[in-house]
Input
Amino acid sequence: MSVMNQFKKMFMTQLRMTLREKQAWFWGIFFPVILMVIFMVIFSGGSDDDFKVKVAAVAEQSNESSNMMLQQLKQIPVFEWVEEEPVTRDYAETLVKDKDVSAAIVLPSADGDTSLSLILNKEDEQNSTSMAVISILNEYIQKANLMAAGVEPVFVLNVESVSAGSDDLKYQDFLLTGMIALSIAQGGLFGMVDMVEMRRKGLLKRLRMTPAKMGLFGFSDMLMRLVFAMFQIILLSLIGVYVFGATLHIDLVSLLIIFLFGSLAFNAIGYFFSSFSKTTEAYMGIANIASFLMMFLSGVFFPIETMPGWLQPVSKVLPLTYFVSGLRDGMVYATGWLDGTFWLGIGVLVLWGAITFLLGSLLYRNRSIAAR
Amino acid sequence: MTVLEVQNLRKSFGTVQAVKDISFAVEAGEIFTIIGPNGAGKTTTLEMIEGLVQPDGGHISYGGLSWDKDAEAIKKMIGVQPQSEAMFDLLTPQENLELFASFYEKPMSVIEILDMVNLTEHRNKKVKVLSGGQRQRLAIGLAMVGDPKILFLDEPTTGLDPQARRNIWDIVLALKEMGKTTILTTHYMDEAEKLSDRVCIVDAGQVVTLDSPAALIDRLTKEREVRMTFIDGEAAATQVEQFAGAQSAIVRTERTGKDLKLWTNQPEDALHVLFGFTKDQGYRVDQVSIREMSLEDVFISFTGKEWRD
Output
């Protein structure tokens, strides 16, 4: 009864401290959301039918061939015509130079002329948009040639993509799960800053002078962090799914397992950092280094396989690598918890969690005796 | 009845011997004050008694209970207000008190404590916006919430303005009314004199002396300092100094301009002859005072050191 009441009060204290701390809101909620939105917008870029290239047509003299070609080109959905009617070459060049259009297509200047020209900005000559325009036009010319020759194409190319997971795995899904893992990890890495603050102010010492059950206090802290992390998962998932169209295939058991072990491991790492940081500034510095290192080396934004070969062994020891991949197993691939690599990841997380927790406790104990 | 007994306490931090040898016993219901300059070992002594710091040697007994065997029982009977402001800044005074109350089996009513430490009005503000005096009062409230027999207040008034100090004094005296035993540290002599039943003067990690404030002052030499100033200025002062020097009741004199200081073992006799002389000569006395003895003098006489706040 009194233990229950004590636990309730402790949990409420933890909850209030978190909800009233602006830093917790910023790093726990706004920062991951903003980061995810930025990365989603930059890297997922939208699907194929959103891809548009602004172009202009140039016709010095309107003629039969140019009209016909313009009509056909206008059927290509990728092109967005800045001017309805063809413009002069000089004007088109200005448009290209000012980057108002990505390319200007020069139509045949006389009846019977069959050559198309393309004006590109020198700076953009090699970029993907220019490449796309060139290949679209090439394809168009080829088709036109085939038609002119009256030949049916013999070979066709069909493009298919495959992935390890379900058929419709998108970059959004990959990024969303990466961001969820990252924000939970950061919650652990940065979240223990209040331990540093509590020790600096003598609050931990103060609590130890009362009959308060310190184990219960630690447990209430942990539980509050799990609740907060759960809230992060749900919020980020909702934004990912409803705003960016990510698709999730959740395997609840493996998700729960990886969530629990991952959160605990990163909290243990944060606890370890807090055990030797004298000030909050020192703690935040260490947590930032760890967080940035892991952010880019653990396959949050890009698959590890795309990194330089010499860097990959580093990723293989970082806990976030295994947390991200475990979370993807549970949320996207739905591979289930019977998978061997899944448990290998859990093993690595447990190792990280156990070692850092033990080191942290050891440092805390040594300090509490020696400290004034 | 002795509620706390401390014997031959010792503690070193590296090469610094913070506490060399401290022994005393505290009686139930008294306000027992440990005074001494900064670095005298007050806080270390208190932290050993509170079970936070392991002593290098010596014994601490709470009516037979010791930290080694009965830590939980001792924690239930003591209430501690530490020097640092250890409380949850983002919580309100009421929430802080309710949390601490949940640690104890029979806590005091939070409403009552808020009233006693005069924080009812501020109970729903966050602690971080409270003033120094308000925080200090909350810290005392947190020490009281478990309804302890013994309270430890470590420099509760340091850094507070005179009004806030007086508020804390009222709380300490109210605790005595309630029958609590209070162990107080301070480096304000007037505070120790005003509040304490007994004073333990500590310097350089050792007990210098221990008694009630009145008894300590009484033990001092009977020599008193008398100050006089004259409306007729330096000439009068010089004349009076010459006269005083010849009197048997006056030990010695010292003059700066028109201010005259003299020391005597019989202040009544000395003043009688002095005023007789000034009346005869027609000198007009501007001010006269006999300096009262305080714990400060006790400290100076026992340690031979000047007292610094």
Observations:
- Chain B has two domains: 2-218, 224-292.
- The radius of gyration of chain B is 24 Å.
- Residues 48 and 54 of chain B are 6 Å apart (CA to CA).
- The first strand of chain B starts at residue 2 and ends at 13.
